[in-house]
Amino acid sequence: GGALGVAFFTRWLTLAAAAVDREADRLTELDSAIGDADHGANLKRGFAAVRDVLEKEPPQTPGAVLVTAGRQLISTVGGASGPLYGTLLRGTGKGLGDSATVSREQLAAALTEGVAAVGRLGGAHPGDKTMLDALGPAAGALGESFEAARDAAERGALATVPLQARKGRASYLGERSVGHQDPGATSSALLVAALAEAAAG
Ligand code: ADP
Ligand code: MG
Ligand code: MG
């Protein structure tokens, strides 16, 4: 396993932006079933801004790439997912410190910190049918491999279908939120898939 530097983290977020562009309609469709039909548009706007800032002001360390991206999401996305994903990336970036390169194991530990920060901000727990249901398992599995993290996030997103939402807009629906896949868990699986893609090439 090689060391992960600025180029790797920039590639991850660029691939994430491409995946969000590609899947925006599906994310919005999921959010129209149990939310307000803006998740695709929210993330498209946010990740386009991330791509721009990384191009115009390239950060010098992996941690700075993630902190910069997180800050950008917080300032450009109005919905709940902006501050939550912003906090995820900022918390993960802070966890990486200012090393020029990091290992996958270090990234796994930092991501675990980022996920915990999302939990503190939003007050959600595992099983509440949120992005945490994909991100939590992914952070755990990243200690094993990028592919294991991708698969764990995908499984976590699918496992939100039978759950009743207890946080965010979907929770207003009560039992009617059951039977739908959570939009945020679905976009989290895309972000982790982009991470595995960045690692693969
Ligand atoms: P909004 O609900 O403000 O329109 P989005 O549609 O962009 O924002 O994002 C909705 C997603 O955000 C949900 O599918 C869920 O995964 C996630 N989410 C909402 N509230 C929380 C929370 N308190 N903790 C964790 N994730 C949350
Ligand atoms: Mg929404
Ligand atoms: Mg909204």
TrEMBL record:
Superkingdom, natural source: Bacteria
Domain DhaL, residue spans: 7-197
Major enzyme class: transferase
Record flagged with keyword Transferase: yes
Pfam families: Dak2
Leader sequence segment: none
Family annotation (SMART domains): Dak2
Record-linked InterPro entries: DhaK_L_YcgS, DhaL_dom, DhaL_dom_sf, Dihydroxyacetone_Kinase
EC number: 2.7.1.121
Keywords annotated in UniProt: Kinase, Transferase
Single GO MF annotation: phosphoenolpyruvate-glycerone phosphotransferase activity
Keyword Disulfide bond attributed: no
Gene3D superfamilies: 1.25.40.340
NCBIfam families: dha_L_ycgS (TIGR02365)
PANTHER family per the UniProt record, alphabetical: TRIOKINASE/FMN CYCLASE (PTHR28629), TRIOKINASE_FMN CYCLASE (PTHR28629:SF4)
UniProt name for this protein: Dihydroxyacetone kinase subunit DhaL
Species whose genome carries this gene: Streptomyces lateritius
